[in-house]
C-alpha cells in the first residue's frame, strides 16, 4: 500500500551512509496529540505514559534524553533522515515497519475499538457500516485496518490523534477507531464523551495482522548500539516494577 511504499523509499534514502553519535545523548520524538500516552499540558509541558516511560528507560540506561513533540506524519521520515534517534508514540510493531526500522522489545499490547454515539451503532461489521463515515488517524494500524476491511465506508483521515473526536461529536463522522485506552481516558471519561460509548469487539494483533505484535520504541536499523541500550533500560524498568507502576498510574480503574 501507499504507506509501505513510502517507508521503503525512506529506508533506501535514510539508511545508507548514516552516522551516529555514541548512545548517550539522544533525541526522541513523540506525537503529542494522543493522550493519555503523549500530550502537552496547560503549562506547555510534554506529558503522558510514553513520555514518563521514555524518561524512566533513559535513566535506567544512563542515556541523556531529550523527548520532543513532532508531527505524526514527519516522525518516521525524521527517523530515517537521522533527525531523531528514536520514536515513542504507541508505535505498533508490524512486518512492514520492521523492514525499515528497528524496534525495542515490546512494552505494551494495545486493544483497538470503535467508539460512536450511544445507540447510533450496534453492529460494526463491514456490511453494517457501509456508507458510514469512519474516522481514523492517518498512517496508523487503525487506518490500515479499516481501509482493508471497510471498502464500502468513507474513511476520513486526520493528522492528529485527538482531531477525529471533533468531527465525531459534530456529526461529521459516524464512528471512530483508536486504541481502547486512548478512547476511554481521553474522551469517554471527559464531558465531551458522556453521550458516546465503545462499540464492537475488542481487537488485537491476534485478530488482524494490521494491529501488529504490540508496541515498541522505534530506532534506525543501523543504530544497533542504541537498540541494545534501550532494551537494557526497558528490562530494568520492567524488573524494578516501574512499568507496572506507570500502568497503574495511567490506567487503573477508578
Automatic annotation (TrEMBL):
Signal peptide range in chain numbering: 1-21
Species for this entry: Pantoea phytobeneficialis
Residues of the Solute-binding protein family 3/N-terminal domain: 25-254
Recorded superkingdom: Bacteria
GO cellular component: outer membrane-bounded periplasmic space
Protein name listed in UniProt: ABC transporter substrate-binding protein
Entry-linked Pfam families: SBP_bac_3
PROSITE patterns, A to Z: SBP_BACTERIAL_3 (PS01039)
Main location: other
Matching InterPro entries: SBP_3_CS, Solute-binding_3/MltF_N
Location of this chain's protein in the cell: Cell envelope
